[in-house]
Design goal:
The protein is mostly beta strands and 358 residues long. 4% of the residues lie in helices and 44% in strands. It is globular and about 50 Å long.
Length: 358
Protein backbone atom coordinates (compact mmCIF):
# COMPACT_ATOMS: atom_id res chain seq x y z
CA UNK A 1 0.00 0.00 0.00
CA UNK A 2 2.88 2.34 0.82
CA UNK A 3 4.38 1.84 -2.62
CA UNK A 4 1.07 2.46 -4.33
CA UNK A 5 0.64 5.76 -2.49
CA UNK A 6 4.24 6.69 -3.28
CA UNK A 7 3.75 6.06 -7.01
CA UNK A 8 0.52 8.01 -6.95
CA UNK A 9 2.13 10.98 -5.22
CA UNK A 10 4.98 11.03 -7.76
CA UNK A 11 2.54 12.59 -10.21
CA UNK A 12 2.10 15.60 -7.94
CA UNK A 13 5.84 16.08 -7.46
CA UNK A 14 6.50 16.27 -11.19
CA UNK A 15 3.39 17.71 -12.82
CA UNK A 16 1.98 21.20 -12.19
CA UNK A 17 -1.70 21.05 -11.20
CA UNK A 18 -4.24 23.03 -13.25
CA UNK A 19 -8.00 23.44 -13.15
CA UNK A 20 -9.97 21.79 -15.92
CA UNK A 21 -12.23 23.95 -18.05
CA UNK A 22 -15.00 25.36 -15.92
CA UNK A 23 -15.50 27.64 -12.93
CA UNK A 24 -13.11 27.17 -9.99
CA UNK A 25 -14.57 26.04 -6.67
CA UNK A 26 -15.68 28.66 -4.15
CA UNK A 27 -12.73 29.63 -1.95
CA UNK A 28 -12.60 29.46 1.82
CA UNK A 29 -10.92 32.64 3.09
CA UNK A 30 -10.39 31.65 6.73
CA UNK A 31 -7.31 33.28 8.26
CA UNK A 32 -6.93 30.75 11.07
CA UNK A 33 -3.83 28.52 11.11
CA UNK A 34 -3.75 25.48 13.39
CA UNK A 35 -0.52 24.05 14.80
CA UNK A 36 -0.40 20.46 16.01
CA UNK A 37 2.80 19.25 17.75
CA UNK A 38 4.45 16.26 16.10
CA UNK A 39 7.12 13.74 17.08
CA UNK A 40 10.47 13.59 15.34
CA UNK A 41 10.51 9.78 15.16
CA UNK A 42 7.17 8.05 15.73
CA UNK A 43 8.92 4.71 16.25
CA UNK A 44 11.31 6.08 18.87
CA UNK A 45 9.95 9.01 20.95
CA UNK A 46 13.35 9.46 22.65
CA UNK A 47 15.21 10.13 19.43
CA UNK A 48 16.18 13.79 19.04
CA UNK A 49 19.14 13.79 16.69
CA UNK A 50 20.20 13.20 13.11
CA UNK A 51 23.70 14.18 12.09
CA UNK A 52 24.41 17.69 13.40
CA UNK A 53 20.74 18.50 13.95
CA UNK A 54 19.11 18.25 17.38
CA UNK A 55 15.32 18.21 17.17
CA UNK A 56 13.69 20.84 19.39
CA UNK A 57 10.08 20.96 18.20
CA UNK A 58 7.81 20.34 15.25
CA UNK A 59 4.28 21.13 14.13
CA UNK A 60 1.82 19.99 11.50
CA UNK A 61 0.23 23.12 10.04
CA UNK A 62 -3.34 23.19 8.71
CA UNK A 63 -5.94 25.75 7.68
CA UNK A 64 -9.36 25.71 6.06
CA UNK A 65 -8.22 28.50 3.76
CA UNK A 66 -8.30 27.27 0.15
CA UNK A 67 -4.94 28.88 -0.61
CA UNK A 68 -3.08 27.36 2.33
CA UNK A 69 -0.23 24.97 1.52
CA UNK A 70 2.46 24.56 -1.10
CA UNK A 71 5.18 26.20 1.04
CA UNK A 72 8.29 26.71 -1.09
CA UNK A 73 10.32 29.28 0.89
CA UNK A 74 10.21 31.16 4.18
CA UNK A 75 11.74 33.98 6.17
CA UNK A 76 11.89 34.45 9.93
CA UNK A 77 11.90 37.98 11.32
CA UNK A 78 12.40 39.03 14.97
CA UNK A 79 10.01 37.78 17.65
CA UNK A 80 9.27 34.52 15.78
CA UNK A 81 7.40 36.27 12.97
CA UNK A 82 7.22 33.84 10.03
CA UNK A 83 6.69 34.73 6.38
CA UNK A 84 6.09 31.73 4.15
CA UNK A 85 5.53 31.80 0.40
CA UNK A 86 3.65 29.15 -1.56
CA UNK A 87 4.10 27.96 -5.13
CA UNK A 88 0.85 29.74 -5.98
CA UNK A 89 2.23 33.11 -4.88
CA UNK A 90 0.36 33.21 -1.57
CA UNK A 91 1.92 34.69 1.56
CA UNK A 92 1.34 32.92 4.86
CA UNK A 93 2.34 34.88 7.94
CA UNK A 94 2.09 34.31 11.68
CA UNK A 95 3.91 34.76 14.98
CA UNK A 96 4.85 31.42 16.51
CA UNK A 97 3.95 30.97 20.18
CA UNK A 98 5.97 27.84 20.91
CA UNK A 99 4.80 27.47 24.50
CA UNK A 100 1.12 27.32 23.51
CA UNK A 101 1.56 25.80 20.01
CA UNK A 102 -0.30 28.73 18.51
CA UNK A 103 -0.05 30.82 15.35
CA UNK A 104 -0.74 34.38 16.50
CA UNK A 105 -1.72 37.26 14.19
CA UNK A 106 -2.02 34.98 11.16
CA UNK A 107 -2.77 36.08 7.62
CA UNK A 108 -3.09 34.26 4.29
CA UNK A 109 -3.13 36.50 1.21
CA UNK A 110 -1.81 36.51 -2.38
CA UNK A 111 1.10 38.65 -3.52
CA UNK A 112 -0.02 42.01 -4.92
CA UNK A 113 1.24 41.12 -8.40
CA UNK A 114 2.90 38.28 -10.27
CA UNK A 115 3.37 36.63 -13.68
CA UNK A 116 0.34 36.35 -15.99
CA UNK A 117 -1.60 33.10 -16.31
CA UNK A 118 -0.21 30.77 -18.94
CA UNK A 119 -3.65 30.00 -20.39
CA UNK A 120 -7.23 31.21 -20.11
CA UNK A 121 -8.41 28.14 -18.21
CA UNK A 122 -5.24 27.24 -16.36
CA UNK A 123 -4.80 27.75 -12.64
CA UNK A 124 -2.89 30.84 -11.54
CA UNK A 125 0.46 29.04 -11.61
CA UNK A 126 3.02 31.59 -10.48
CA UNK A 127 5.38 28.87 -9.23
CA UNK A 128 7.05 31.19 -6.71
CA UNK A 129 9.94 29.12 -5.36
CA UNK A 130 12.44 31.46 -3.70
CA UNK A 131 12.34 34.54 -1.47
CA UNK A 132 14.86 37.02 -0.05
CA UNK A 133 14.54 39.94 2.36
CA UNK A 134 16.68 43.00 3.09
CA UNK A 135 16.10 44.22 6.68
CA UNK A 136 17.55 47.67 5.91
CA UNK A 137 15.32 48.57 2.97
CA UNK A 138 12.58 46.10 4.08
CA UNK A 139 12.25 45.00 0.46
CA UNK A 140 11.59 41.47 -0.78
CA UNK A 141 12.72 39.45 -3.79
CA UNK A 142 10.80 36.50 -5.25
CA UNK A 143 12.11 34.01 -7.80
CA UNK A 144 9.56 32.53 -10.23
CA UNK A 145 10.59 29.12 -11.52
CA UNK A 146 8.36 28.67 -14.58
CA UNK A 147 8.55 32.31 -15.64
CA UNK A 148 12.34 32.46 -15.23
CA UNK A 149 12.09 35.85 -13.59
CA UNK A 150 13.02 37.69 -10.40
CA UNK A 151 10.65 40.30 -8.95
CA UNK A 152 11.34 42.88 -6.25
CA UNK A 153 8.56 44.11 -3.95
CA UNK A 154 8.40 47.14 -1.68
CA UNK A 155 8.24 47.05 2.11
CA UNK A 156 5.45 44.82 3.46
CA UNK A 157 4.90 43.47 -0.07
CA UNK A 158 2.75 46.54 -0.74
CA UNK A 159 3.51 46.61 -4.47
CA UNK A 160 5.78 45.28 -7.18
CA UNK A 161 8.69 47.63 -7.85
CA UNK A 162 10.55 45.98 -10.70
CA UNK A 163 11.10 42.62 -12.41
CA UNK A 164 13.75 41.06 -14.62
CA UNK A 165 13.97 37.92 -16.73
CA UNK A 166 17.75 37.36 -17.01
CA UNK A 167 18.78 36.02 -20.40
CA UNK A 168 20.94 33.35 -18.75
CA UNK A 169 17.81 31.83 -17.16
CA UNK A 170 15.64 31.64 -20.27
CA UNK A 171 16.92 28.23 -21.42
CA UNK A 172 16.35 26.63 -18.03
CA UNK A 173 13.69 23.87 -17.99
CA UNK A 174 10.09 24.97 -17.48
CA UNK A 175 9.85 23.15 -14.15
CA UNK A 176 13.56 23.38 -13.36
CA UNK A 177 14.16 27.11 -13.13
CA UNK A 178 14.91 29.39 -10.19
CA UNK A 179 14.41 27.08 -7.22
CA UNK A 180 16.54 28.86 -4.59
CA UNK A 181 18.23 32.23 -4.04
CA UNK A 182 20.86 33.42 -1.60
CA UNK A 183 22.20 36.88 -0.80
CA UNK A 184 25.81 36.75 0.33
CA UNK A 185 27.35 38.95 3.02
CA UNK A 186 29.33 40.85 0.35
CA UNK A 187 26.12 41.87 -1.45
CA UNK A 188 26.20 39.35 -4.30
CA UNK A 189 23.12 37.32 -5.17
CA UNK A 190 22.99 33.64 -6.14
CA UNK A 191 20.16 32.02 -8.12
CA UNK A 192 20.03 28.23 -8.42
CA UNK A 193 18.34 26.22 -11.17
CA UNK A 194 16.68 23.03 -10.00
CA UNK A 195 17.50 20.84 -13.01
CA UNK A 196 19.41 22.75 -15.74
CA UNK A 197 22.58 20.72 -16.31
CA UNK A 198 25.95 22.41 -15.99
CA UNK A 199 28.55 21.26 -18.51
CA UNK A 200 31.20 20.61 -15.86
CA UNK A 201 28.86 18.75 -13.53
CA UNK A 202 25.91 19.49 -11.27
CA UNK A 203 23.28 22.07 -12.15
CA UNK A 204 23.51 25.67 -13.28
CA UNK A 205 23.58 28.63 -10.91
CA UNK A 206 24.15 32.35 -11.43
CA UNK A 207 26.14 35.02 -9.60
CA UNK A 208 24.75 38.57 -9.72
CA UNK A 209 26.99 41.39 -8.52
CA UNK A 210 23.96 43.71 -8.29
CA UNK A 211 20.20 43.48 -7.73
CA UNK A 212 19.03 40.62 -10.01
CA UNK A 213 15.53 42.13 -10.30
CA UNK A 214 16.86 45.24 -12.03
CA UNK A 215 16.69 45.15 -15.85
CA UNK A 216 20.18 44.94 -17.23
CA UNK A 217 21.63 43.14 -14.20
CA UNK A 218 24.53 41.00 -15.39
CA UNK A 219 25.31 37.49 -14.22
CA UNK A 220 28.05 34.89 -14.49
CA UNK A 221 27.52 31.15 -14.58
CA UNK A 222 28.81 28.50 -12.22
CA UNK A 223 27.75 25.00 -11.22
CA UNK A 224 26.44 23.53 -8.00
CA UNK A 225 26.80 19.82 -7.35
CA UNK A 226 24.09 18.53 -5.00
CA UNK A 227 24.33 15.17 -3.20
CA UNK A 228 23.78 12.32 -5.64
CA UNK A 229 20.10 11.88 -6.52
CA UNK A 230 19.04 15.08 -4.71
CA UNK A 231 17.92 18.52 -5.90
CA UNK A 232 18.49 21.87 -4.19
CA UNK A 233 15.30 23.45 -2.80
CA UNK A 234 16.42 26.34 -0.57
CA UNK A 235 19.44 28.07 0.92
CA UNK A 236 20.23 30.34 3.87
CA UNK A 237 23.27 32.02 5.40
CA UNK A 238 24.71 30.78 8.69
CA UNK A 239 26.10 33.25 11.27
CA UNK A 240 29.68 32.45 10.21
CA UNK A 241 28.92 33.38 6.58
CA UNK A 242 28.82 29.86 5.20
CA UNK A 243 25.80 28.61 3.27
CA UNK A 244 23.24 26.13 4.54
CA UNK A 245 21.66 24.22 1.64
CA UNK A 246 18.50 22.09 1.66
CA UNK A 247 17.97 19.25 -0.82
CA UNK A 248 15.10 16.85 -1.47
CA UNK A 249 14.69 13.48 -3.12
CA UNK A 250 11.69 11.37 -4.07
CA UNK A 251 11.58 7.84 -5.43
CA UNK A 252 8.53 5.55 -5.72
CA UNK A 253 10.23 2.81 -3.70
CA UNK A 254 12.02 4.81 -1.00
CA UNK A 255 9.63 7.76 -0.75
CA UNK A 256 10.74 11.22 0.40
CA UNK A 257 14.01 12.22 2.03
CA UNK A 258 16.01 15.41 2.54
CA UNK A 259 19.66 16.31 3.03
CA UNK A 260 21.03 19.41 4.71
CA UNK A 261 24.56 20.47 3.85
CA UNK A 262 27.02 23.31 4.44
CA UNK A 263 29.16 25.01 1.81
CA UNK A 264 31.99 27.54 1.94
CA UNK A 265 30.84 30.71 0.16
CA UNK A 266 34.45 31.82 -0.40
CA UNK A 267 34.83 28.89 -2.83
CA UNK A 268 32.16 30.18 -5.24
CA UNK A 269 33.70 31.17 -8.57
CA UNK A 270 32.44 31.75 -12.10
CA UNK A 271 32.98 28.72 -14.33
CA UNK A 272 33.67 26.40 -11.37
CA UNK A 273 31.61 23.70 -9.67
CA UNK A 274 30.66 24.47 -6.07
CA UNK A 275 30.16 21.60 -3.63
CA UNK A 276 28.91 21.16 -0.08
CA UNK A 277 29.31 18.68 2.74
CA UNK A 278 26.36 16.80 4.24
CA UNK A 279 25.59 17.45 7.90
CA UNK A 280 22.22 15.71 8.33
CA UNK A 281 19.68 13.52 6.56
CA UNK A 282 15.94 13.22 7.09
CA UNK A 283 14.30 10.01 5.99
CA UNK A 284 11.58 7.71 7.39
CA UNK A 285 10.92 6.89 10.17
CA UNK A 286 12.02 10.48 10.91
CA UNK A 287 9.37 13.11 10.23
CA UNK A 288 9.90 14.25 6.67
CA UNK A 289 7.88 15.35 3.65
CA UNK A 290 8.65 17.40 0.55
CA UNK A 291 11.05 19.72 2.38
CA UNK A 292 11.42 22.98 0.45
CA UNK A 293 11.77 25.93 2.85
CA UNK A 294 14.70 26.87 5.06
CA UNK A 295 15.48 29.62 7.58
CA UNK A 296 18.22 30.31 10.15
CA UNK A 297 17.97 32.23 13.43
CA UNK A 298 20.08 32.67 16.57
CA UNK A 299 18.80 32.13 20.12
CA UNK A 300 20.43 33.04 23.44
CA UNK A 301 20.52 29.99 25.70
CA UNK A 302 21.92 31.88 28.68
CA UNK A 303 25.53 30.81 28.30
CA UNK A 304 26.01 31.24 24.57
CA UNK A 305 24.08 31.59 21.35
CA UNK A 306 22.54 28.65 19.51
CA UNK A 307 22.15 28.52 15.75
CA UNK A 308 18.56 27.42 15.05
CA UNK A 309 17.53 25.73 11.81
CA UNK A 310 13.92 25.83 10.61
CA UNK A 311 12.67 23.57 7.79
CA UNK A 312 9.17 23.51 6.29
CA UNK A 313 7.51 21.30 3.69
CA UNK A 314 5.49 21.77 0.51
CA UNK A 315 2.38 19.56 0.55
CA UNK A 316 1.73 20.17 -3.18
CA UNK A 317 -1.86 20.97 -2.15
CA UNK A 318 -2.48 17.22 -1.79
CA UNK A 319 -4.32 15.49 1.05
CA UNK A 320 -1.78 12.64 1.17
CA UNK A 321 1.01 15.09 2.07
CA UNK A 322 1.48 17.47 4.99
CA UNK A 323 2.68 20.98 5.73
CA UNK A 324 5.16 20.56 8.57
CA UNK A 325 7.50 22.97 10.35
CA UNK A 326 10.55 21.55 12.12
CA UNK A 327 12.91 23.31 14.53
CA UNK A 328 16.48 22.12 15.17
CA UNK A 329 19.58 23.23 17.03
CA UNK A 330 22.72 23.10 14.89
CA UNK A 331 25.35 21.11 16.78
CA UNK A 332 29.05 21.79 16.50
CA UNK A 333 30.90 19.70 13.97
CA UNK A 334 34.38 18.33 14.08
CA UNK A 335 37.10 20.71 13.18
CA UNK A 336 38.86 20.01 9.93
CA UNK A 337 42.26 18.47 10.58
CA UNK A 338 45.05 20.90 9.87
CA UNK A 339 47.05 19.93 6.85
CA UNK A 340 50.80 19.91 7.26
CA UNK A 341 52.48 22.37 4.96
CA UNK A 342 54.63 20.80 2.33
CA UNK A 343 58.12 22.18 2.41
CA UNK A 344 60.27 22.11 -0.65
CA UNK A 345 63.88 23.21 -0.49
CA UNK A 346 64.40 26.74 -1.79
CA UNK A 347 60.65 27.12 -2.50
CA UNK A 348 57.89 28.87 -0.54
CA UNK A 349 54.97 26.76 0.64
CA UNK A 350 51.80 27.46 -1.42
CA UNK A 351 48.91 29.30 0.26
CA UNK A 352 45.59 27.43 0.33
CA UNK A 353 43.58 29.49 -1.11
CA UNK A 354 1.53 46.56 2.16
CA UNK A 355 0.11 43.95 4.21
CA UNK A 356 -0.44 45.98 7.45
CA UNK A 357 -0.73 42.70 9.33
CA UNK A 358 3.01 42.13 8.79
Amino acid sequence: MTRILACFSLFFFLVPVTWVHGPPPVKNTSQFINLQPIAFDSSDPERKRTGRLEFLAGWKMTSDNSDFGGISSMLLLPENRFFMLSDAGVLIGFTLDEDKDRAKRPFIAPLPDGPPKESEFGRQNWDAEAMLYDPESRKFWVGYERQHGIWRYSASFARKEVMHQPSAMQDWPLNGGAEAMLRLADGRYLVFSETADYSKGGTQALIFDSDPAEPGAKSTLFGYKAPKGYRVTDTALLPDGSALILHRRFTPLQGVSAILSIADTTEIAAGKVWTSRQIAKLKPPLKVDNMEALAVTVEDNGNSEDTIIWIASDDNFQAIQETILLKFRLLKGRKKPEQKKKTVKNEKAEANPGFSSF
